[in-house]
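Amino Acid Chain and Its Fold in Token Form
===========================================
What this section holds: a protein sequence and its matching fold, both as plain text.
Structure line: whole-number tokens from a learned vocabulary of local backbone shapes, matched to residues.
Purpose: to set a sequence beside its fold so the mapping can be learned.
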Amino acid sequence: MARNYPAIPWCRYADDAIAHCKTEQQAQQLLAELKLRYEECGLELHPNKTKIIYCKDGSRKRNYTDTQFDFLGYTFRRRKSKNTKRNSIFVNFTPAASKTALKSMRAKIRRSNIRNRTDISLKDIANWYNPILRGWIEYYGRYYRSSLYSVCRHFNKTLIAWVRRKYKRFQRHKTKASIFLERIAKKEPHLFAHWKIGMVGAFA
């Protein structure tokens, strides 16, 4: 790439890579040469994962089958964005946490079995899980932080389940348990990493 295509921006992580071409013709040429280069090295490009993607947005309006791709836990596709200077909405081609990444985060929360850890306090849970939540927020929250809302909602619901198991008075009262947590979130908004950035809603 450095020798033959120095003008094409590209990025690689382990065995995943993307190259940003200006035209479809340039992309087809690069793909053909990469296949030859890989064959020279006794390798081959993944037949299903290797694709030419059309970065469709508000300016690029042509119709192609493949208009999005996943890379390092992000899905890159057309999304609505806000121009803060002009205070207007436009369609951009940008990344946000992928469905696979979000599913993985929710699965990790379930595997942690927080709802059944009645032997520890809410503060203990915060000390235990804040590094994990903060890591997700700092990585996936760099672009479209709102995409993490479903994960934060899932975690809040897990806390409600924990409250209902921890305290007998809430065992049959989901709404009361939700209100109980909402009050704590208002009183201690910095207790959990996602509460700190305002994702304290949807306890019910």
